[in-house]
């Protein structure tokens, strides 16, 4: 089985995921990276040239592929867990971890980032906060919710391993 890290942009999915995978001796993958490889195109280019709907189809297809693998830590794009279709796959093949943080903290981390096309679609802090709020219920479906606010990386990883252990030791 696998672990999927979910959460809003800036929640640390990639940083935490890489380190978590190293500690577990698992493979690290990230959905944006897989999409970029397949499409041979950056995320902003995919959004600009093919549109968000196309990007979401790519997300679903890489999620389906990763679900077939084992011992993968997957860092998901912030919009991947939105919708029942992707949740069905997540629930079936992944132990899901929501990396929760205060919106203000997330906003500080992502603001001005040119590789996040949604910052153009939601250009104000309020618009972005509405997007965040509209997603929280989906994120909270995760098996565990880890509050990352003011925690060191090591502690966050320790908590994830502790909570996920019963899941992956039962499945192997
Ligand atoms: C998105 C988040 C991004 C990336 C894309 C769309 C979103 O990933 O998938 O720009 O819808 O929240 P990160 O969460 O890694 O920034």
Concise synopsis of the structure shown:
This protein is of the alpha/beta class.
Task: Describe what you observe in this structure.
- The chain has a 5-stranded parallel sheet with strand order 2-3-1-4-5.
- It has 9 helices and 5 strands.
- Helix content is 59%, strand content 14%.
- The protein is an alpha/beta fold.
- It has helices at 13-24, 31-39, 43-50, 52-67, 84-93, 103-110, 118-121, 125-139, 153-171, and strands at 2-6, 27-30, 72-75, 94-100, 144-147.
- α1 crosses α9 and α4 runs parallel beside α5 (84-93).
- The longest helix has 19 residues, at 153-171.
- It has one domain (2-153): P-loop containing nucleotide triphosphate hydrolases (Rossmann fold), CATH 3.40.50.300.
- The N and C termini lie close together (7 Å).
- The model has no long low-confidence stretch (mean pLDDT 95).
- The structure holds shikimate-3-phosphate.
Task: Just name the CATH architecture.
Answer: 3-Layer(aba) Sandwich
Count of distinct structural domains? 1
The strand order across the widest sheet is: 2-3-1-4-5
Number of strands: 5
- The CATH homologous superfamily name equals P-loop containing nucleotide triphosphate hydrolases
Shape: globular
Specify the helix fraction band.
55-70%
End-to-end gap: 7 Å
Largest sheet, in brief, is: 5 strands, parallel
Task: Report the β-strand fraction as a percent range.
Answer: 5-15%
CATH topology, anyone? Rossmann fold
Classify the secondary structure makeup into a structural class.
Answer: alpha/beta
């Amino acid at each position: 089985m696998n672990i999927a890290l979910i959460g809003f942009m800036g929640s640390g999915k990639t940083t935490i995921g890489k380190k978590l995978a190293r500690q577990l001796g698992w493979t690290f993958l990230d959905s944006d990276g897989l999409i970029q490889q397949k499409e041979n195109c950056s995320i902003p280019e995919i959004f600009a040239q093919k549109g968000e709907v196309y990007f979401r189809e790519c997300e679903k297809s890489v999620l389906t592929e990763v679900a077939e693998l084992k011992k993968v830590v997957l860092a998901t794009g912030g919009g991947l867990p939105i919708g029942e279709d992707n949740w069905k796959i997540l629930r079936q093949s992944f132990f899901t971890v929501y990396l929760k943080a205060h919106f203000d903290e997330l906003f500080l981390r992502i603001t001005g980032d040119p590789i996040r096309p949604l910052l153009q679609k939601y250009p104000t802090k309020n618009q972005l906060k509405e997007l965040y709020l509209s997603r929280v219920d989906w994120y909270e479906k995760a098996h565990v919710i880890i509050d990352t606010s003011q925690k060191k990386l090591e502690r966050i990883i320790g908590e994830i391993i502790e909570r996920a252990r019963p899941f992956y030791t039962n499945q192997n």
